[in-house]
Amino acid sequence: MTAVTENHKTTEQVENSGPVHGAELVATNVNKVYSRAGQKFHAVEDVSVTIKPGEFVCIVGPSGCGKSTMMNMATGLLEPTDGELALDGEPIRGPSPDRGLVFQKDSVFPWMKVIDNVTYGLKCRGVPKEERMSIARKFLAEVNLTHVEKSWPKELSGGMLKRVAIATAFSNAPKLLLMDEPFASVDYVTRLQLQKTVLDLWAEHRLTVMFVTHDVDEALTLADRIIVMTNGRVVDDRRVAAERPRRLEALSTPTMLEHKASMLQHLGLPTEGGA
Amino acid sequence: MAAVKAGESTTAASEKATHGAAPKSPGRQNPVLRVVKASDPLALAGMIIILAAWYVVTEQGWVRPVFLPAPEQVFRFAEAHFLESRLVQTQNLGDGGILENLIYTTTSVWLAVLLAIIVAVPIGLASARVQFLRMFSDPSLLTLGAVPVLILMPFFLVWFGVSRNGQLLLLVLVAVPIIYVYAQRAVTNLDPVYAQSALVLGVGRVRLIKDVYLRGTLPEILGGVRIALAGSWSIAAIAELMGAPQGMGRLISTFAANTNITGIFATILILAIVATLTDITLKAVFMFANRWGSVNK
Ligand SMILES: Nc1ncnc2c1ncn2[C@@H]1O[C@H](COP(=O)(O)OP(=O)(O)OP(=O)(O)O)[C@@H](O)[C@H]1O
Ligand SMILES: [Mg+2]
Questions:
Q1: Membrane-spanning regions, if any (chain B) (predicted)?
Q2: Would you tell me which CATH number, out of the four given (1.10.3720.10, 3.40.50.1110, 3.30.420.40, 3.40.630.30), belongs to the domain B39-46+72-289?
Q3: DSSP letter string over B212-249?
């Protein structure tokens, strides 16, 4: 309980250089086999990766390649059929507020007002009201939603709901934040803004982020490291060293274009034209 | 070029647009206003039309008063016998009037529905998640729902004698399957992502049930309670006909035995008013529970 509040307090004064509060995620030979329509289906196959504390990792891959399955296993909502996932050396068994998830689907409780949604995780862990309100308000401000604090979720648009989910996840101060295509339903301009918001929050709180996206450009804008998955396997794992913030020009440097071309190749697309 | 310019000029505007408009907050509604809103004006209009038709038909003498007494006659009877009634007392239906019998029936109905909620809601909610429970609860409660339970009343009279217990049990047996089905369906309809999200946020077992399963299903459960309650009035009255110390059903049957048509109409009218008021109140509660609007959005 106190750990949460301490994290928020200490990071408030510190910028990029603050202590890393993120955790290390280690996946060892992780497999997930679903039975789909009576048949076994290997959704994740023998994935072994180590995500370092404070790293911002993007996972890119076509629809159905097992990205959400990986995320759900990392949160502990789903158990691997074989293999193990561990956070800071502790095997992952079931969900815990250490590992936050922004779901691909809408997960904001429709029966709670926006502010009650954002404070809910803190309330569950007994953070006093004043304190959780101020934490929630801070993150609502970061996602530009201060003005809808007292609204019902039904009164918000799809993109606004996503931002509520993001504020909720950040308020809970996880050591590992998993984001499953968080900006898929958001317009282009808002998406750019939110990318900046997430990067700012990440830089400030120094947590570990795993971010799923279909969009190669988004991955290049955000990540320290990009993992490409197809058919349940990791087919490419690369570091992106460019300075942040990466504006549009930064994405067209020769190195970036090379990253992009080679990733698209791994995704099985023709490389001419780039986009 | 044009595209770039257009892009630039919209950036400032979209900066605001992306925040999204603040929705108009409906403000705090007081409970009285809620009840008024819950009483459907169309239903009210319909009731007035029926009353008017009743008035016209009797006034014009199209129907003889032996078959259909005039409204004033019924109202006057209801008023005269409401608190204190010789007629009621001589029939051994208590030492008051219609009101005392109304309270008896109303208590039976409300108490039975309350008991049914206590029994059916937990089983219904749990049965949606626990297959082992559903294996037993589904066949037994759904069969119960299909049985015309009124045929059990004679047995209950043997077991309980002429007391309220037999009617209560009967009413509970009618309400339980209905509320059970609604509660079960409400959980089935609740997207599992909410429970998952709560778990990821660090919810405990009690809060998960209270804040996710109960709050997320309350409107649908209340919908079921409304339906159970609406059906309970007539069943209560019929059960009383078969044997009860007093009650609106008994009152109707004694008036019928004495061919007191006005008495029958007055009793039915009062019962209908109380049933309607109960429903309006419950609908207001439903609307409050459903402010966030999952059902009938
Ligand atoms: N509960 C399930 N039962 C059976 N099969 C499943 C289940 N969940 C996912 N799958 C299958 O596993 C595969 C991977 O699903 P997953 O949701 O992880 O994909 P994804 O990479 O997140 O795709 P998208 O980009 O469309 O979200 C898919 O082929 C899907 O059909
Ligand atoms: Mg997915």
A1: 38-57, 109-128, 140-160, 166-183, 224-244, 264-289
A2: 1.10.3720.10
A3: IIIHHHHHHHHHHHHHHHHHHHHHHHHHHHHS-SSSHH
